[in-house]
């Protein structure tokens, strides 16, 4: 997981870990629980009957401890997270019991080795609810709530879970400096502050590290860092100038940070892990796969290159159809199929992208639930307008990390009338899949008994 670890208190014999097993903690007296937050902080609770306590019951205690107003209580949810799997919990779930099932969940939804699974521990977090609309987030004026959202967004920017361009990361980094140090620093004070806390506190790790190997990194580190510091300073001066003689309120800067993040279409996504086929580059290159992160939110689906930190494919629900398939034989993979409009030598075609993942079933159900919520919240007329605007929109190659790179995907193509361009069976006249965000005739799937995943 790319965030702060959360857990029940660690075993006293383990001085090297801040994470403890929820399962083992249930036998301790008193039963103390640490609910971790982004930003290196935690809420310490003392819980009776830990083995049967529900998320709803824990939520009341955490909201009281953090002074979260009732108007913002839906902005957050409890998650069980580890480097191998992230699950957003429902109000009825019992964290202790789910932790006892954690290894079974890992075997079912990950490709991890037996050794990794045996050593993995879930951690309890209180973080953003993936189903909370961005429009409601902008209406929040409580500084404590905004800071919780800010810390999570900042973590996702710094770890490149949210890929962004230089204009984004420089502006966001400068806002962080303004929030921590104020807007009145001169150039020397600014540089001293940046160097004391290190650039990695303000910019994505891959930007600070650079590329080109160890020798190139060491040789160019000083000049590259100087350039990054100057870019941050330029953005910071813009904030200071706009503030004038009256320093901006923290809530104003927090709103500005979150609003900038809202421009990233995958803000607030739940994330899944998978692989896609690499485009064939000769006989020796066939059969290789690329690791991807799949973000799903109320707006759509985003497939991101896990290594290069950019978007490969971004689709609103009105632009795609989807389905998932189970392995037919031993050695086969679970697959999430995404179908969207494309072009092949000037001919409009439907394209299919295969995402190999044991989490395909979770992703499919997650998409359906998001479509259901979005349709219900927007109403038929508004969703239909949005659908007509996005349907059949061609995806173009662009330089931004936020934009789709359809040219770099290994997809299957076919035309609407069933004529094959690349071999594909069975032939279909229209869409392969009935699962589409058709408005207003969408039929919601019942997923109330499944776990949400992030």
Automatic annotation (TrEMBL):
Residues 1-24 are annotated as: Disordered. Gene3D superfamilies: 1.20.80.10, Phosphatidylinositol 3-kinase Catalytic Subunit, Chain A, domain 1 (3.10.20.90), Pleckstrin-homology domain (PH domain)/Phosphotyrosine-binding domain (PTB) (2.30.29.30). GO terms for biological process: negative regulation of canonical Wnt signaling pathway. It comes from the Eukaryota. GO terms for cellular component: plasma membrane. Residues 1-11 have a biased composition (Low complexity). Residues 31-378 form the FERM domain. This is FERM domain-containing protein 8. It comes from Salarias fasciatus (Jewelled blenny).
């Amino acid at each position: 997981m790319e965030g702060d670890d959360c857990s029940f208190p660690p075993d006293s014999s383990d001085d090297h870990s801040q994470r403890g097993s929820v399962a083992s903690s249930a036998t301790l007296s008193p039963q103390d629980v640490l609910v971790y937050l982004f930003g290196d902080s935690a809420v310490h609770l003392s819980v009776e009957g830990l083995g049967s306590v529900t998320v709803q019951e824990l939520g009341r205690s955490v909201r009281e401890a953090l002074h979260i107003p009732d108007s913002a209580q839906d902005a957050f949810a409890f998650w069980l997270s580890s480097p191998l799997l992230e699950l957003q919990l429902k109000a009825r779930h019992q964290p202790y019991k789910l932790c006892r099932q954690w290894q079974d969940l890992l075997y079912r939804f990950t490709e991890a080795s037996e050794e990794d699974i045996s050593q993995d521990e879930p951690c309890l977090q209180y973080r953003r609810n993936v189903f909370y609309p961005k429009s409601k987030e902008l209406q929040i004026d409580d500084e404590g709530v905004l800071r919780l959202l800010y810390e999570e967004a900042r973590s996702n920017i710094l770890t490149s879970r949210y890929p962004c361009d230089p204009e984004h990361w420089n502006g966001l980094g400068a806002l962080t400096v303004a929030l921590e140090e104020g807007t009145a620093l001169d150039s020397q004070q600014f540089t001293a502050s940046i160097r004391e806390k290190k650039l990695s506190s303000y910019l994505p790790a891959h930007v600070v590290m650079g590329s080109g190997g160890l020798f190139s990194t060491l040789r160019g580190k000083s000049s590259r860092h100087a350039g990054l510091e100057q870019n941050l300073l330029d953005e910071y001066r813009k904030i200071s100038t706009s503030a004038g003689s009256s320093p901006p309120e923290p809530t104003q800067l927090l709103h500005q940070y979150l609003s900038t993040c809202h421009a990233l279409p995958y803000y607030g996504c739940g994330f899944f892990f998978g692989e896609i086929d690499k485009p064939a580059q000769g006989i020796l290159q066939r059969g290789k796969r690329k690791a991807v992160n799949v973000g799903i939110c109320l707006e759509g689906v985003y497939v991101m290159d896990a290594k290069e930190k950019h978007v490969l494919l971004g689709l609103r629900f009105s632009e795609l159809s989807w389905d998932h398939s189970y392995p037919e034989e031993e050695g086969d993979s679970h697959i999430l199929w995404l179908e969207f409009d494309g072009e092949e030598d000037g001919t409009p075609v439907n394209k299919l992208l295969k995402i190999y993942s044991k989490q395909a079933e979770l992703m499919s159900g997650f998409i359906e639930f998001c479509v259901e919520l979005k349709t219900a919240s927007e109403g038929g007329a508004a969703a239909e307008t949005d659908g007509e605007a996005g349907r059949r929109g061609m995806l173009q190659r662009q330089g931004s990390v936020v934009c789709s790179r359809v040219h770099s995907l290994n997809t299957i193509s076919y035309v609407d009338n069933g004529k094959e361009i690349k071999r594909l069976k069975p032939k279909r006249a229209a869409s392969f899949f009935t699962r589409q965000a058709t408005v207003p005739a969408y039929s919601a799937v019942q997923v109330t008994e499944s776990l949400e995943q992030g």
